[in-house]
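Extended Data, panel c. Modelled sequence:
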Amino acid sequence: MRFYIGFDDTDILGANVGTGKLVRRFEQVLPSDCRVWGVVRQQLLVDPAIPYTSHNSSACVVIDCSNETDEELLLKLAVRHLEKGAIPGSDPGLCLIRADHPALSALQAFGLECTRRIVTQKEAFDAVGSGHLSGHGGTNDGLIGAAAAVGLTASGWHGRFIEFSGLRDFPDSIKVLDLWKTGIGVVSMDRDACVPGPEDSVQTKSWLRPRLWGHEAVLPVVPAGPGRWESLGGKRKANKDSKED
């Protein structure tokens, strides 16, 4: 069984551990019959009226478990992890939904709304229905981003992976074939749509972040020379109030 667990607003400016890192660490407390398929960062609306920490992003961890897994146990572990890791002064929220839950279509629509306009906690609760959605401190506004992270991730077409098959351990230059072996597709974004070959190399610029496209991890690349490619995007320049995921 697949579960989507969304986390949001767990930190404050200057904190050493942002939401993305907290979510990635959740794997350490999972039951033995569960594994993390991936962790996806979702970008929500940036607006002066929204009290976000640095970039107004939230994160969803996608977990695959055996059919015998107790959903209540998974929820208990997620709540404990959130409350233990959230920074005092933050407004953390949590959303947990099974992949076969009837609320997923409404949550997907809600997630898209969160990228376009300011939404309310009531709208989040209406979208999640009988699924789990909770706030764990402060204004509890983090539950909005948590629900949005689940909806956008479950749609299969939004966000970028901040964890997938140990991507942070990959070398700066890696063969296309080796990316395929980990489950990461490689797609050329140049105008002629050339196809990267299995022995071609991809320069990741020390920042390998596949996109969630078609419910799969896909790395967009551009040509960098014969048999060579470069991944799109790059690490944001750091400052004292910004944490890169």
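The helical segments are 19-24, 71-85, 104-113, 121-128, 142-155, 176-181. This feature is highlighted in the accompanying rendering.
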